[in-house]
Amino acid sequence: MTHSAPRHRIARASRLARAAGILLAALLAAGAPAGAVEPNEMLDDPALEARAREVSKGLRCVVCQNESIDESNAEMARDMRVLVRDRILAGDSNAEVEQYLVDRYGDYVLLKPPFKPTTYVLWFGPALILLGGAVAAVAYYRRKATGPAGPAPLSPDEEARLHALIGDDEAGPGAGTRTGRDQGGSA
Amino acid sequence: MTRKLVYFLPLLVVAVLLGFFIVGLQRDPRELPSVLLDQPVPEFALPGLPGREPPLTEKADLQGEVVLLNFFGSWCAACLQEHPVLQRIQDEGLVPVHGIAFKDQPDDTLRWLKRHGDPYDRIGYDTTNRIAIEFGITGAPETFVIDKAGVIRHKQIGPITDRIWAETLRPLIEDLNEG
Amino acid sequence: MIPEIGHFALVLGLFVALVQSVVPLVGAQRGNLAMMEVARPASVALFLTIGVAFVALTHSFLVSDFSVSNVYMNSHTDKPLLYKITGVWGNHEGSLLLWILILAVFSLAVAVFGRNLPPMLRARALAVQAMITVGFLLFILFTSNPFERIDPAPLNGRGLNPLLQDPGLAFHPPMLYMGYVGFSMAFSFAIAALIEGRVDAAWARWVRPWTLLAWIFLTLGIALGSWWAYYELGWGGWWYWDPVENASFIPWLSGTALLHSAIVVEKRDTLKSWTILLAIITFSLSLLGTFLVRSGVLTSVHAFATDPTRGVFILLLLAVAVVGSLSLYAWRAPQLKGGGVFAPVSREGTLLLNNVLLSTAAATVLLGTLYPLFADALNLGKVSVGPPFFNAVFVPLMIPMIVVMALGPMLAWKRGDALGAAKRLWLALVAAAAVFAATYVVAGGAWTDVGAAFGMGLGAWLLVATGVEWAERVQLFRTSPANSLKRAVGLPRAAYGMSLAHAGTALLVMGIVGNTAWKAESIQVMAPGDVVEIGGHSYLFEGAETVDGPNYAASRGHFILRDEDGTALARLDPEKRQYTSPPQTTTEAAIHSDGITDYYAVIGDPSPDQGPGAYVTRFYHEPFVPLLWYGALLMGLGGVVSLTDRRHRVGAPTRARARGAAASAGGAVAPTGASARV
């Protein structure tokens, strides 16, 4: 161990996790989770508390793995939750609370990555992929529309074998339209 | 011909992905570089350990000279490993070593220092993680190099070893002392 | 002695697998039938060797042989029998052995039931399957030997993590592996087809049952994991977009796409090179998932056995498999000629759209999962990609998907009539509008309820449309009831499978939307006698006591759940357990379900400063969560029903033929086949 998280239990839990090693051996890094927020952390004003929950859900617990501070039982997460509530009580807006932590931990602390040049690929990626898929589909239809003549018909032998294999009420995809061995003959 | 090239596209994508994985395997996804580099030390207010002098209570205590600020705690196993190195740095006298014990009770800290030796000049403490969050750290030990103007110039994550001291920290501090 | 036998069996298995991956391939190339036929006895032998190894490891767990390091690390004499057995795969080494065993079982199944396959295709597919097995056997033998001994043997083991001592999670990994590994069959068949240079309807027909089988297991495996997380982790969540979850979800998405594109290959003999690519990609994504989970390149909430040498080894395995197969693809796929032409608005057209959307979704989840790695490798800084990102990009992709899912089955092959189909779906449209309006009003009519109401309407649209499609097939109300019944009986199982799976998806959508929008929670300290109201229901805290379990101590709370009228609905007795070996706390939530809504109670730590007998308590009002489980079960059931379709049956071709003749004589109409001939 080169760097301890500020709690004994975390080190132990991660060792357990190594031993346990199962998909969904979830949330071990923080011990057994059970809803993290404790009543004694909560603000009396329900509106402010609701804001605190909302902000907490978007902040990453920095000693855990991919959990928000709202879900994590790690002490660090607890102290960050308390900090969030203190900032809110001090009059910070939600964005100001987030900025406070970003100033100290960087974008890493945000579960929703900010929209900026280094994340353009991430945010535009899905749309670009979809566009690529759409272009490919359109190209496919165009090619088909002007495509070459239909493929070579089956040899009688192949025909018979296909029928033997599928052979039932359906002639499969229409006997005439299926491909035989590739026509290039390089096979 | 271009149509045939389309069939190489998946291979290309996968090659790029594999490249990333090779790089990724050599990195520790949990290591978090500090965003406070070249930023002034945040303001803070801490108590000193009862019965131990001098205390580290505020930002002003760190200013005017190049210092090492070490975050530790009696709960931290890796700090123990770093402990003799810190003692040697202190003995060398090049730079003052200040400490902040966090997520720790003062009694535990004092007992720990008594048992393993006390390499620190000033010490402040926090029974919570608040001071750690203030400095954007995720665990212990972590050590900051702070220049005369109170600006953070370097952060060491994990224990300082003799090698890190000799190859990275000492040259940096000597530079800063001259500047 | 027995562990050594197991170890030896693995080594032996490696040699068998090597033979199986070379000889049949050479035989197929030379047209040597005897060499090709080696694949079948080899598959049997491979299964036997791996089976022996697996039994040997299970034996070590059963007798608690702590001289085996793996048993020492993961078991304990006090552990209940069930968890001694599931402990076999509750760790990295053992789960890998299970993975290989499943690979061997699939090979065996092809060898035994694949008598109707052309010998050449079978030989090649089995050889490819054996190559994958070789890779994994090398991996286990060189980096993760499950039979490693420790000397001296410890007196007792470290125990299995109590979170994993749960029936839900005990069977989650085997299900997932059946899914992952099942996709290896589609992969092997794809490679065999590429070598052969030929993909046709018959190929698709052989591949589909294997893909379907894998898909069923993966679907249920993911659902099981989600269900476990929901009731065991104690805060009422069921999906986290965690890297490890994504690692199983991405192959699910592409596997679902494969399932649908294979239909087009089978019915219309087109989209072939794309389907081959999907088959390769789906299995590659399964391998990628393994790599991500076990190499530690991504941080995940699911701390797993991470080890750099293992990471390097799996990466190597992944690289060989993916680069090899995609190179072959780049070389051979251009020679695969497509067949049937179809219009964008047609059954095939919607299936293609389904593929575009599902592939985009898979790529999107992959992008989000890997982006922290990309950013770090390019020194763009550390970023986190969490649920807010995934929800923001995934949901918009699913909306058109659901809309079209309802239309697709209504369209004819080749060229469909979208307007006509939409008209025939008027009932679904009305239902969707009604559900939208009703939900919106009931929810309170706020701006923020529009999205949720729309989502519920979307679910209703798909559900009713699926019903309408079935009603049309059996000509419900358009012909005599007797005739409709006859048609209903005569419908192919595959048609029922589709209807069930699509209806399941509709329920899933409603469950996800409804729960996300209207979930409520309440966290507080309660003294005995206190009442908390949430979601119109009240929870009375009667107090808590300490109880002892077989290998844990627990505090157990007692609550009475009442509805709006004050009628008691259920007693809820959640526990907080402290296990001793290994020492860990778990939460056992108490859940009362009325079939639509779950009432979920959790007991926390005692809080004596708030009064005698006071405890921290949490309640979650979980509307529509049961729909998630119904939906997933229906999807799985749809898969199973479809699998039993005569045309999908993998074995006994002669019997199938005989019955096929009988069925045609009986006038059964295979709707898809029928329209294919249009």
TrEMBL record, chain A:
GO cellular component, one term: plasma membrane
Membrane spanning residue stretches: 120-141
Spans annotated as Disordered: 164-187
Entry-linked InterPro entries: C-type_cytochrome_biogenesis (IPR051263), CcmH/CycL/Ccl2/NrfF_N (IPR005616), CcmH/CycL/NrfF/Ccl2_sf (IPR038297)
UniProt entry keywords in alphabetical sequence: Cytochrome c-type biogenesis, Heme, Iron, Membrane, Metal-binding, Signal, Transmembrane, Transmembrane helix
Residue ranges with Gly residues bias: 173-187
Leader peptide range in chain numbering: 1-36
Function field: Possible subunit of a heme lyase.
Family: Belongs to the CcmH/CycL/Ccl2/NrfF family.
Name listed for the protein in its UniProt record: Cytochrome c-type biogenesis protein
Organism encoding this protein: Roseospira goensis
TrEMBL record, chain B:
Transmembrane stretches, start-end: 6-25
InterPro entries in the record: Periplasmic_diS_OxRdtase_DsbE (IPR004799), Redoxin (IPR013740), Thioredoxin-like_sf (IPR036249), Thioredoxin_CS (IPR017937), Thioredoxin_domain (IPR013766), Thioredoxin_ResA/DsbE_sf (IPR050553)
CC annotations in GO: outer membrane-bounded periplasmic space
Thioredoxin domain boundaries: 35-178
A Pfam family per the record: Redoxin
Keywords: Cytochrome c-type biogenesis, Disulfide bond, Membrane, Redox-active center, Transmembrane, Transmembrane helix
Annotated protein name in UniProt: Cytochrome c biogenesis protein CcmG/thiol:disulfide interchange protein DsbE
Automatic annotation (TrEMBL), chain C:
Pfam families in the record: CcmF_C, Cytochrom_C_asm
Location relative to the cell: Cell inner membrane
BP GO annotations: cytochrome complex assembly
Main location per the UniProt record: membrane
Molecular-function GO terms, alphabetical: heme binding; heme transmembrane transporter activity
Entry keyword Membrane: yes
Known role: Required for the biogenesis of c-type cytochromes. Possible subunit of a heme lyase.
Protein name per its UniProtKB record: Cytochrome c-type biogenesis protein CcmF
